[in-house]
Specification:
The structure is a homodimer. Chain A is α+β, with helices and mostly antiparallel strands. Chain A is built from five helices and ten strands, in the order βαββαβββαβββααβ.
Chain lengths: ~250, ~250
């Protein structure tokens, strides 16, 4: 029995998120079905991030156990031949049998994209959130700086989350404009439910001048969701990748 | 009676190209229908570029005549409220009544995007052509240089075209790599049927080493379609915009 780690990319547009659920097609369900068919075993993957409906991924992570003789590196090719075109395995390899993608220290990177133009651009409508009010990127950068470091992000967590510990560390949050696109990448050791989308919604409010950058410091200190900006739409969000330091050391 | 010029952007994925035809939904047909409903007149637009099925546009151009009292600049907003999300008017303004978008000197800019990675990226599958063989961008740039200037592009025109005059001028063809994306913008005074997609297909062949850059010079001289590379897929192509020098002088 081997444990295999997959790096999974998908266009979230046509899925009700990652996690299996009744009466809706999810990424996890499609992976389980096609892996089971490919390997002739009942496979259930364990995912690293249970992304929401409409959220995209370049590098989500999933593991599963198998007795297959297909070499681990070849599973990506074999599985891609069966998957729909909006889910693509970027990498497959063997990992230690006790590796668990949610219970292992990691650094996750998300990207949020905002199209800031007079009118929306049709080819970007599913991959960037459209904001027509002009945004001041320098003000957004000032606001973003308050979020970097270890903080209690209780204000940046959707109600309904059952997480008790709300302290997280953001290693970096780089926001910039390239042409009509304003986007940021945020890397951290974990994110609360909807945290990146609430950060995005809050930074947009700062960008359009609803409140000054310093307000973000107050929001953090308040530790109360109602102080923050709205949750920005799912389409602008992409899980870029997940790094596991433990896997970067050679396997013994 | 006024003549109105529209700058039209669209995601070509779900359309059988620009031009009206039986039993297939086209961009022109949707524009005619929604303009006619908006203005209460039978409107038929004249388009600048009859883009193929699956080709995208940031700035195609169309004109139509109307008696409406809606101010020309407001037509974009009113029309966008009715159009599907994959067609968006970027600008509307009055132009001289004799302005014809296909019979007026212009400079058109197209972009072709190639995703050059080990595996495809789901969120780009509809907006870039995927090539897994590693491409040598410097060789592609050398090949592209042969195409710039005034040439007889007969070799770069799909058979079935009824155009007799095949001399065109390419003002610039800038090709570069940004991360996994290789793309070029090409600006010219006009393009033959499928010309940009045949250029893309030919440059890809050079990039993967099928033939040396100098072969492109021979292809031009041969003036025969069968000498060139294959036509690259529609999804990678976007009509970026069309400039009309005559409209850039103030209207009297």
């Amino acid at each position: 029995m081997k444990r295999i780690k997959l790096v999974v990319s998908y266009d979230g547009t046509n899925y009700y998120g990652w996690q299996k659920q009744p009466n809706a097609v999810t990424v996890e369900e499609v992976l389980n079905r096609e892996l089971s068919r490919l390997l002739g075993e009942a496979v259930e993957v364990i995912g690293a991030s249970r992304t929401d409906s409409g959220v995209h991924a370049l590098g989500n992570v999933a593991v599963f156990d198998t007795d297959t003789r297909i070499p681990p590196e070849k599973i990506s090719y074999a599985l891609n031949a069966r998957l729909p075109k909006d889910i693509v395995i970027q990498d497959s390899k063997e990992v230690p049998p006790d590796f668990h993608p949610r219970r292992t220290d990691c650094a996750k990177t998300y990207e949020y994209r905002i199209l800031n133009t007079r009118f929306p651009v049709p080819t970007m409508r599913l991959y960037a959130h459209y904001v027509y009010k002009p945004m001041d990127v320098e003000q957004m950068q000032r606001a973003a700086a308050f979020l970097v470091g270890e903080h209690d992000f209780a204000s940046f967590c959707s109600s309904g989350s059952q997480v008790k510990e709300t302290v997280r560390t953001i290693y970096r949050l780089d926001l910039k404009r390239e042409g009509d696109l304003v986007f940021f990448q945020v890397e951290g050791n974990g994110f609360l439910y909807n945290m990146v989308r609430i950060i995005a919604g809050t930074l947009i409010e700062v960008g359009i001048g609803s409140y000054p950058p310093e307000k973000v410091k107050e929001m953090l200190e308040a530790k109360n969701r109602i102080t923050c900006g709205p949750k920005a739409p799912a389409c602008g969000l992409t899980l870029v990748g997940i790094r596991y330091p433990v896997l970067e050391q050679p396997m013994s």
